[in-house]
Design brief:
single chain, 15-stranded mixed β-sheet, 15 helices, 15 strands
């Protein structure tokens, strides 16, 4: 073999990324972005990044904690054509019984009821393995069609990570819900007791409900269901209200729609960026964006779970980000009474985010997630009030008060980043 051939077999600069001086970063998605000002500029940026821009004509209702179930069940009981549910967690409990009863009644009245659950959240959980016996069997006997999303045959690592973390309910193709909810006892309370998780959800009417229905349809098909009938997709005309976009994201190689959405929402902030998130340990690029926003004079705040957390290693990973953010000027609180499970962002006085997307590597890179992004000043004011109420039940973290990192926190962050890392 010639000397030239030997050289060509070695890694080369350029596309191989072995230039060694860091210039390969110019070939990766960068931030922070400079967005055109206001809702129109943000919508245009969102559209060219995700294929979805803000569209007008949506009536939305912010629902805290268990409020969502009373409203949801009311809509389900009034359903005329179809009820579609896609949830990560559905486990036997009193709340589950209420849904089983409502779906049973509607199914026997001729309404097409379809349910998809993720087996990791709903079935393969120690002590809660009775979804098939206590929930699925009852629903199936009543005529409700139930499927599991991606069965865990073989339990290959990629299959364990490639789950659906979506929380979607669509009634008659006209009303939709998303947020952090699951069908389990921890969501039944007010978020002020240790065994009642604090969460936030959104009810939507308007054109984007069709996009949410498409998300359900894709999961339904992959789980063994057929094509949905045409009446599941009614024409939905704009009818007042705010502008909204539903961002459907799934795990893939490269930057997902979820991460694109988060980066653009952060970039849109000019005065305020308040983040409440159950699993706050974002990639370094987003942490850098937050630091830049502080330098630009933006009021950046983070609210995360405190002593009550369902995944201790993620809480440690979350706390590993504090030292650098506090040093940059970000204010941080930890919610004290219960597990904080919300996934919300509030930008200035007009842009809101409510959905299932956590700010960790797993959600941003591997999981199927859904998020409503919308311009609605009335709901923005309500989210501000919710934030201030939650802060009254929270502990502010400083460098002298729990904000320093340590070897355990650094290890936890490496572990959680590795679990969801794809590039």
């Amino acid at each position: 073999m010639s000397e030239l051939q030997d050289v060509e077999l070695l890694p080369q600069p350029g596309a191989h990324g072995f230039d060694g001086d860091g210039t390969n970063r110019k070939h990766e998605m960068q931030g922070p972005f400079e967005l055109p000002p206001g809702p129109e500029g943000f919508s245009f940026a969102l559209y060219q990044s995700t294929g979805v821009g803000l569209s007008p004509g949506h009536r939305m209702h912010l629902l805290e904690n268990s409020q969502v179930f009373d409203r949801m069940l009311e809509d389900i009981r009034a359903a005329k054509h179809s009820v579609h549910m896609l949830v990560y967690i559905w486990r036997p409990c009193a709340l589950s019984d209420r849904f089983v009863e409502a779906l049973t009644e509607r199914s026997r009245a001729g309404v097409q009821c379809r349910v998809v659950v993720d087996p990791v959240g709903s079935e393969e959980t120690t002590g809660d393995k009775d979804f098939d016996q206590k929930v699925e069997r009852r629903l199936s006997e009543a005529g409700v069609e139930v499927h599991y999303y991606r069965l865990l045959a073989g339990k290959v690592l990629g299959r364990l990570l490639g789950r659906s973390h979506q929380k979607i309910v669509v009634v008659d193709g006209r009303i939709a819900y998303t947020g952090g909810f699951g069908i389990w006892k921890v969501w039944e309370g007010d978020g002020l007791k240790e065994d009642n998780w604090r969460d936030t959800h959104i009810r939507v009417e308007g054109p984007e409900v069709r996009r949410i229905q498409v998300t359900f349809a894709k999961h339904w098909q992959e789980s063994g269901g057929g094509l949905l009938p045409r009446e599941a997709f009614p024409e939905l005309e704009p009818d007042g209200g705010g502008c909204a976009a539903f961002i459907d994201s799934s795990g893939r190689l490269g930057i997902t729609e979820a991460e694109r959405m988060v980066r653009l929402v952060v970039a849109a902030a000019t005065k305020r960026l308040w983040i409440a998130n159950a699993y706050f340990t974002p990639p370094n690029d987003i942490l850098e964006q937050l630091e830049v926003k502080v330098r630009q004079g933006v009021d950046v705040r983070v609210l995360g779970p405190g002593p009550h957390h369902d995944v201790p290693v993620v809480r440690a990973s979350q706390r590993s980000t504090y030292e650098r953010l506090l040093a940059a000027g970000v204010r941080i609180w930890e919610y004290q009474p219960a597990m904080l499970h919300s996934k919300t962002m509030l930008v200035d006085d007009w842009l809101c985010v409510v959905g299932s997307t956590n700010l960790d590597a797993l959600s941003l890179n591997k999981l199927s997630e859904g998020t409503m992004v919308f311009e609605d000043r009335e709901i923005a004011a309500k989210m501000e009030a919710c934030w201030e109420k939650d802060v009254r039940h929270s502990k502010e973290i400083t460098l002298e008060n729990g904000g320093r990192t340590n070897p355990w926190r650094r290890f936890a962050r490496r572990a959680t980043q590795f679990a969801g890392h794809d590039r």
